[in-house]
Amino acid sequence: MRSILVVLGTFLSMSALASPTQRAVAFCEVNQELCRDVEELNPIRTRAGHFRFVGPSAEAEHVALAFLHRLMFGNDLPEVRSAIVPNCLTVFERDPELAHALFDVESESMVRTRIVSTLGRLSGPQGALLLEKAALDSSAEVREVTAALLGYRSDFDALRVTALGFVNDPSAEVRAFGVRAFGWHGQPEDFERLAPLLTDVSSRVRFQTVAALERLDDVRLRQSVMFQQLSEDSDPKVAGMVARILKSSNQ
Predict the structure, then answer these.
(1) Is residue 134 situated within a structural domain?
(2) What is the Cα–Cα distance from 32 to 30, expressed in whole angstroms?
(3) Which of 33, 80, 126, 208 lies most in the core, judged by the most C-beta atoms within 10 Å?
(4) For residue 60, what pLDDT is reported?
(5) Containing domain of residue 114, as a range?
(6) 44 backbone dihedrals φ, ψ, rounded to 5°
(7) In this structure, are residues 141 and 113 in contact, taking their beta carbons and an 8 Å threshold?
(8) What whole-number distance in Å separates Cα of residue 121 and Cα of residue 150?
(9) C-alpha separations of 80 from 9, 91, 110, 189 in Å
């Protein structure tokens, strides 16, 4: 049998034009036993109700490649396929373009969401590129996870245009995470962009907007009529935050 390094090197040196399907096939043609073992694994359901896998005892990158093959060719339900994604991380970290290609061809939004949540924290241009791509996804679930991860990026300024898109997203959950990201990383000049969201139909968005604007320019926020009117907001969390900020200004 060819050595692990030779087989892995062959797999990863394949043409970048090869599809995820072709690359998974090439690996499992050489490692049929391992791929069969992974194919027969049953996921474990956690206390939170999610699935996860415990991989076989083998070289980490080989196990990841076997899981990739199952992800591409298995007949698992979407929630199980989603649980497979983290087990492919070793391969994705080594070859981010493979993860991007897989995201492009994946039809299940649950799986695309897991690809983003697994790889969206990767530093550098590859992680940022995936977030930019996911920001345009048709699924609100995918965009929500993308917006949430954006707030943790040290290169937020390079993704500012993407973040602005989230602030105007049709989904309230996406808007809320987009506003939160600006609260963490924004500049005082972003105040004008976020202020209109003080009247958003979603109380969650209003709450995040108050929190973000307080960080950006608390003096200007307290002078805002829209902000002051939120002291009577229908959501007690929003009204309570406004009351706290107004009280602190009188001390």
Answers:
(1) no
(2) 6
(3) 208
(4) 85
(5) 1-119
(6) -105, 135
(7) yes
(8) 9
(9) 29, 19, 10, 44
User: What was the pLDDT predicted at 2?
Assistant: 40
Domain assignment of residue 55, yes or no: yes
Structural tokens at position 166 = 């989230």
Measuring CA to CA, which residue among 69, 77, 78 is closest to residue 34? 69
> What whole-number percentage of the chain has pLDDT above 70?
91
Count of CB atoms within 10 A of residue 36's CB? 13
Mean pLDDT, range 162-168, rounded to an integer: 95
**Cα distance between residue 125 and residue 105, in whole Å:** 21
Between CA 23 and CA 183 the distance in angstroms is 42
Residue 15 has pLDDT above 70, yes or no: no
Model confidence pLDDT, tens digit, residues 132-149: 999 999 999 999 999 999
| pLDDT tens digit sequence for 19-73 | 667 778 888 999 999 999 999 999 999 988 889 998 887 788 889 989 999 998 9
10 found inside a domain? yes
Considering the domain boundaries, does residue 170 fall inside one?
Answer: no
Structure tokens at 98: 């493979």
Judged on CB neighbours under 10 Å (0-12, 13-18, 19+), 236 is exposed
Output the furthest CA–CA distance in the chain (Å, rounded): 77
Residue 165 vs residues 81, 179, 184, 220, 235: alpha-carbon distances, Å: 29, 10, 17, 24, 26
Domain count, the chain: 1
